[in-house]
Amino acid sequence: VGGSARLVSRLPEDRTKTGQLFVLDGDAVVAGPFRCYGKSDNAAAREHGNWDEGAADPRDDTKPYGDHPYGEWTVTRIVEVVEADKLRTYGAFFIGVEPVMDPSDGLSDAERRILNGGNGIGVHGGAAAANGGLRPTYGCLRLSNDDLLSLVPHVLVGMGYTSEPPGNSRA
Known about the structure:
This protein has 171 residues and is α+β, with helices and mostly antiparallel strands. It has four helices and eight strands; from the N terminus they run E-E-E-H-E-H-E-H-E-E-H-E.
């Protein structure tokens, strides 16, 4: 993976649908696309006060337990998960990301999430849903366990990660 390599996710506006995650070096695809899911768990959002019953999208991405927010991130850690009880939740690895805080260009959803009391989030796997698909998270980006294992060799601490809004693809 070259020095300009970065992670890029492209999530649909309708978060009940899956998006794609790539490793790009310049405009070249190094790995992926990997199917990913950036929808928050509705029950957790309700339980933690991130729910507006009358809204078209009741979860606020800029608050904890919202959908995976758009913005610029940096990979801060890659943790191998060994505890049996955490493998169902995260899969074999957890790739931790923190937002790039640069309010000079207006706050991104990622920056707003931190300012609203959220913590860093990540990219991880985990057990499949009952229907075999990807399960919702608490704001992270979920991949299948197989895709996570294919992704991890291409990810480095310090690598950039962009979660692009729909229609904003650069590659």
